User: Fold these one by one.
Assistant:
Number 1:
Amino acid sequence: MHFEPSREAAVSKLNYFINNGLNNYSKLRNFDFGSEDRSNISCLSPYITHGIISEIEIIKKSLNKYSFLINEKFIQEVLWREYWKGWLELRPKVWSDFIIDLNNLKQEYNENKNYIEAIEGKTNIECFNTWINELKNDNYLHNHARMWFASIWIFTLGLPWQLGAEFFMKYLFDGDSASNTLGWRWVAGVQTKGKNYVASEWNIKKFTNNRFKNIKLNENPIPVRDDRNYSIINNGFVNANLTNNQDLLIFENNLFFEESDFKDQSFKNIYFVFNGNETRQIKLDEKVINFKKSLIDNQIINLKSKSLKCKMINIHDIKNTKESLLALYPSVGENLDYINSSNLKNISFLYRKIDQYSWKYCNKGFFNFKNYIPKIIKEFVN
Ligand SMILES: Cc1cc2nc3c(=O)[nH]c(=O)nc-3n(C[C@H](O)[C@H](O)[C@H](O)COP(=O)(O)OP(=O)(O)OC[C@H]3O[C@@H](n4cnc5c(N)ncnc54)[C@H](O)[C@@H]3O)c2cc1C
């Protein structure tokens, strides 16, 4: 597995997948054939997470090749990510509570034997140890492996989901506050209250092509209980006033400016905001930090070749200006936390059109959201 940190690599991965994996995606997507064979899935998440390639571009290209019917499952998965984002935007306290819980649990589990054996890949569960090493080496795991991993972490090893979510964020190139936090909550049984995801020996054997044997798991666990309820915040997601020649901040989630909804607006300077580990609550692996930095470098080269004025700045630097600044909305997560905790009232946000349109459908479950997918496609793709 190799993720080259560039827009060019993202586009070529997409083209390869459309020509080689897309037609069998719904049939084969659940198989984890191992890190040497990922042809059945797109492996685009590290790029989508950083806005190097957008959901709309992906869906458009896939529909150029195959009908909606053949593409339906793939499109649903691509928009599942959008759904999780919107769900968290409407309930940002789920993120802040996760961070608070995490900070408490980190102290408590610091020297816990099960925890240390798990993160070092030294448990007596071979498949789990393999995924730990894969995550550290490739900074990626197949979706099904993420589900099995999280289920084993919580229900067989007896560890808190929050520590597992932190571990994923640390190593994944696609680490995303919404998909990751809500993915872990879903496996634990607190996202859909009382419904947990239980990994089983037969399922792992079947979908890994019998790569693992003798998998002893707790296959009858009870869901994690969390009685907190989260009411919906009505944010509105309305764009700031746009005038020419303002400065624009771009955070790590919206890096491909050339395809953004604001590409035709003239900005005085474009600043790509680099967030290293100093300000993050969840410290990232050096490879992940370097991946982000290289993606920013790649975007700066692309924009400079089009004579746009841009440069990378450190997140601390945004505190130093008193002028009003526009920013492509960074979404609930570490970057928004930094802006809020530093009380930077001079920053106002610009939202992606697809987010403004879709997030209003994220108030209920995914099955409800799915009904609006044809509307979303009609609005943005056709
Ligand atoms: C516990 C857990 C943690 C996760 N953490 C993250 C994370 O931090 N970042 C992240 O991007 N995804 C996360 N996912 C979702 C999913 O596993 C990955 O998006 C997917 O494996 C990426 O591989 P791919 O690009 O080959 O996916 P494909 O199968 O090719 O799907 C195409 C795209 O659809 C989206 N997608 C697919 N499945 C899901 C899903 N279940 N939820 C949300 N979006 C999906 C992704 O953007 C993906 O790139 C998590 C899932 C679980 C169960």
Note: The pocket of flavin-adenine dinucleotide is lined by residues 29, 41-45, 48-49, 77-78, 80-81, 84, 142-143, 146-147, 150, 168, 172, 174-176, 179-180, 183-184, 187 (CB under 6 Å).
Number 2:
Amino acid sequence: MLPLAEATPPFFAGIDVGGTNIKIGIVDDLGRTCAYRHVPTMEPRGPQDAMERAAATLREMSKEIGMRDEDCVAAGLATPGTMDIAKGILLQPHNLPTWWGYNVRDSLQAACGRPVSFANDANAAAFGEYWVGSGSEFHSMVLFTLGTGVGGGTIIGDLSVDGENSAGSEFGHTIIDYKESARMCGCGQRGHLEAYASAKAVVLRALEELTADPSSRLHERLQKDGDLTALSIAQEAEAGDPLAHHIVMDTAKYLGIGAVNVMHIVDPGAVIFGGAMNFGGHDSALGREFLNRIRQEICHRAFPVLAEKTHIDFARLGSDAGFIGAAGIARTQYKRKG
Ligand SMILES: [Zn+2]
């Protein structure tokens, strides 16, 4: 955490809403975090209550670090979709049922008394990585967020590609298998990347292949835990189980194909993989092998110049990316107006 005396004003607030927690941060003009807290979402109490608590927490945080309230000039709000970004409205986010149809941007604006910009959480995370994370050296970058689903964000020269209907950069729903037999995606269509490479899909694929491999340690794991998760599959892969390892590397292959599709549309400087499911990232042998397998698939399928020049890496900001990016989007809009 950066002490206020070393920070560069003005300051921006970033508020990242999830199904369980709301992350709240204050960052300086260079994207460095000066204060951070999280509060429970308490979804059943509805969005107005949550926005008022977020604004109150923000005021407490400014006081605590000795920042004058007026030095925080704008706030950015990131939420899961679906949404109408231009209007500031949440449409039907599946993990926030009491928030449907609510103007969450205006509500926060009223509660915190400063301009609020609104973004999809994956696009906000992409902006965070672009501003001060793995994409900071590049003019353009795309982020794949790997978790329960597969999200995406595209940033080109300070601009987040949100689309006309707030459905831009939905990489999880790009098609990697056109056949009738393709896997079913959570959105109701077949063959989408998310149906192959989300944490849910990793578990499903493992369960399907398990019956043909009685020697896999995943059987014992399933019996012991009552269920498999992407994490338990990663642990067994690290411990040397061939089936678990094969499931993880197949996930990398699918993501490599998804990445090539995006590269041939955007031609970004960097393709970054973030989210909770990174198989240990740079810190583990499995994570490094996973990233290399993605790179290998990209080399195999992309234009040679893209395969050679595009930077492929893990995200750097972890779960901070969303609030930092939301603050960064607020900063960009503030500077544009100023
Ligand atoms: Zn889909």
Note: The chain has two domains: 4-128, 138-316.
Number 3:
Amino acid sequence: MTPEETKRVQETFKRLEADMDHVAAVFYERLFALDPSLRDLFRGDLEEQGRKLMTMLKMLTKAIDELYAIMPAIENLAFQHVRYHVKPADYDTFGKALIEMLELELGADCTPEVKAAWQQAYTEISSLMKEAAKDVVW
Ligand code: HEM
């Protein structure tokens, strides 16, 4: 991440955070529209899950230029997702839903530069998660 990309991600996240429940609901709506089969993986209350997702995104975006510092948390998250039956390909769908949510929520502020910064951030996080999950045998 360049310093500019880091700034773009952190600044736009602040806006999303202001309406966390709504943003999370839009995100899951887009995720299940892209792949309805993913709905079955979510067993608990989706609103509660949305808050967990946003809290995790807050931590990740805060540390986006120093992800190595929170590697244990990233690994732990990756391991949990293996248990939730999340497959490597699902990370692509998740990333697409994230960008679609940004487009809907940020409107005109979702510039190509902002989108590229989020894409870069998500690629870095999801690559670390997929790498950590690769050798898990339960
Ligand atoms: C950067 C990527 C991701 C982040 C930050 C993230 C974040 C989270 C968090 C914080 C939780 C809650 C864990 C807990 O209960 O302590 C969770 C659960 C879950 N995530 Fe993710 N996730 C990501 C990617 C994915 C992907 C690609 C999928 C695939 C569809 C997915 C599906 C799930 C499911 C099914 C649960 C369990 C929900 C339930 O118990 O009802 N996540 N995620």
Note: The mean pLDDT is 96.
Number 4:
Amino acid sequence: MHAIFVTGTAGSGKSRLTSILKPWYADKGATTVVVNLDPGAFSLPYAPDVDVRDHIDIESVMESYQLGPNGALIFASDMIATRLPQIQEQVDDLNPDYVIFDTPGQVELFAYRQSGPYFVENFTCDNRCVIFLFDASLVATPTNYVSIALLAASMQLRLKAPQIPILSKKDLSGDAWKKAMKWSSNRAALEDALAKEKSGTSGIDYILSSSIIRDLSRSGFNYELIPFSSVTQEGIIELSATLARILRGGEEIEG
Ligand SMILES: Nc1nc2c(ncn2[C@@H]2O[C@H](COP(=O)(O)OP(=O)(O)OP(=O)(O)O)[C@@H](O)[C@H]2O)c(=O)[nH]1
Ligand SMILES: [Mg+2]
């Protein structure tokens, strides 16, 4: 069994992408289990096979600990790791080829506290990887692009699993996705765009953002994005091939 964790900023399209992967793999003859790991999820575009909300109830957390919605979400996120044994057992009983985890919208609660990294590291499976969504609407300017790339690097540090960077919601972005694609594959083009945005190369904003991007590149972080749309399903073949390469050493025949 291989595990795929779908991560990204709030609203970046994690749940929609999760909803697409299950039928995609079913078509290829592979079995999947979809796990909702977001205790605060209100409605989901798929029926989870395993649901953390069966183990952690936000409203009871609010009542029992006299917390407001934000405090309850933090508390509930911290509880995710404590439910690992039950979730592992439920997934193991279903014995799928792939388990897909839809992670909480508040990425900082999942990745920067102890619970999320503990869960990713300790869920027992053959291989694991993390999909990270660069929301096309958030990376429309060079500085925003650098900020999200930095967040992706930080997720890599925290979750310690191979990462697949995806440019999500391509269909919503007009032509803006082309710029993000260029910046992701051509550092000089990104530095030029940063210099134009900041009206030169002497200001602190330029120096900081261009240094970040150079250091990320020097450290081997390669953010060549896969453009993806959950509406048109463009990018699913590239995503699936990348998942196969990371999880199965390239073998794409399922089942
Ligand atoms: N047009 C378009 N809309 C999308 C796409 N992906 C997601 N959406 C929409 O964007 C909104 C947020 O998508 P979700 O899949 O719920 O995003 P999420 O990252 O799971 O959100 P949270 O869990 O709340 O952080 C929903 O209205 C989706 O229908 C896409 O590729 N194209
Ligand atoms: Mg979601």
Note: The chain has a mean pLDDT of 92.
